[in-house]
Design goal:
By secondary structure, this protein is mainly α. It has 3 domains: about 1-50; about 60-150; about 180-340, Intergrase catalytic core (hpI Integrase, Chain A). The protein is about 45% helix and about 10% strand. It is built from 14 helices and 6 strands. The strands form 2 sheets. A 3-stranded antiparallel sheet has the order 1-2-3, covered by helices on one side. β1 and β2 (about 15-20) form a beta hairpin. The radius of gyration is 29 Å and the shape is elongated.
Length: about 350
């Protein structure tokens, strides 16, 4: 709803105050010397608000999306060590596509159009981008706008507030069978990469992510207490990985052979930096004859083995470092044996040795 109020000052000057009130949006007020200007402003502003491209301050016209992304890189990403490589990549995409637009012209429909155009295109690894990836790209842009609104006051209305996310599946659960695991480990043993076998064993033993493992430093490996401390994880929280059994034996022998010239446990032969295992992993997969399996699926394998060996969803979430149980519900069906034993134990306690076929007393 809009109103225009005629106001007469003490010196006789006439002005027209226009006021716009729309449900769900902040009130907008502007004053003009001519009523025609006031009416035009009302018309244009109401249309802009309904289309999600009106912002109270002039800052939204002053700055482009590219300006906002650059400031976000300098002030926000520099402090986000965990997973900031992906965040930079996502924002690079938006800057290439919409960087020249002023913030005031970034509308929900423009964002949706650009996001949808991404679906089906190939990433640098040759894999097609899908709905989940599109959500991640949009999420990165959404946080930038949140910062621009709350911290910088460059915007007032969030342009992604009206953009719906794609519905995501529960996620794939691809894990190695016993026979596949045996073939893969044998292929890793024969690899020219001196660390591939140990890295894969750690992934299967702890459920850690690839970058968490290859980036680990010796100072974070506590052989005395049989654990690895991860200081930089995907969710930004410190996590402890239990180092048990065969994985412990391998890492103990690895430490004894360490030449102490590099702080990384799995360093490159040429520089003191984490080793690159991409080619070695690809060759091991080919030699093992395993298809449709990614390194990250070793994490799924570890979680699946935990579930099949009686671990609860809470325990699996703790091992994998998930804050909620939502991500580990995909493994629930694998823990049926454990669930059955829990129910059986409960029934034994409340019904004793009664015949299972007996009916409940009236």
């Amino acid at each position: 709803m809009a109103t225009i109020e005629k106001r007469i000052a003490k010196d006789g000057t006439i002005a027209y105050r226009a006021r716009i009130r729309l449900h769900g949006h902040p009130q907008q007020i502007a004053t003009f010397q001519r009523i025609t200007d006031a009416k035009l402003w009302v018309q244009q502003t109401e249309a802009a608000i309904r289309e999600g491209r009106h912002f109270k301050t002039s800052q939204s016209r002053k700055y482009t999306l590219s300006d906002a992304i650059q400031r976000y890189r300098d002030e926000i990403l520099i402090h986000k060590k965990a997973n900031n490589i992906n965040q930079k990549h996502y924002l690079d995409f938006w800057e290439n596509e919409l960087g020249a637009y002023s913030l005031a012209d970034i509308t929900p429909s423009l964002i949706v159009k650009t996001r949808n155009k991404m679906i089906g295109t190939e990433n640098k690894y040759g894999r097609k981008r899908g709905a989940v990836t599109a959500n991640r790209y949009t999420g990165a842009l959404s946080h930038l706008f949140t910062v621009a609104i709350n911290d910088w006051e460059w915007l007032e209305i969030h342009p992604i507030g009206k953009v719906s996310k794609f519905k995501e599946s529960r996620g794939r659960v691809r894990f190695l069978s016993d026979e596949e695991r045996s073939r893969l480990l044998e292929a890793c043993k024969k690899s020219d990469n001196p660390h591939l076998y140990k890295i894969v064993v750690l992934a299967l033993s702890t459920g850690a992510r690839k970058m968490e493992i290859i980036g680990v430093k010796w100072k974070d490996i506590d052989l005395e207490h049989r654990r690895i401390i991860l200081h930089e994880t995907k969710n930004g929280e410190r996590r402890s990985l239990p180092l048990q059994g065969y994985a412990y034996t391998l890492m103990k022998a690895h430490k004894e052979a360490w030449d102490q010239k590099c702080e990384y446990a799995f360093s490159s032969a040429y520089k003191c930096q984490p080793i690159d295992i991409r080619t070695a992993w690809k060759n091991a997969m080919i030699n093992a004859g395993i298809e449709d399996f990614r390194f990250h699926d070793l994490r799924h394998s570890a979680a699946s083995y935990l579930a099949m060996n009686g671990a609860t969803l809470t325990e699996i979430a703790e091992v994998l470092g998930h804050k909620t149980l939502q991500m580990v519900k995909r493994y629930a069906h694998l823990s049926e044996t454990h669930t059955h034993s829990v129910v059986a134990s409960m029934n034994e306690k409340i019904f004793g040795g009664q015949d299972g076929s007996a009916t409940e007393a009236a």
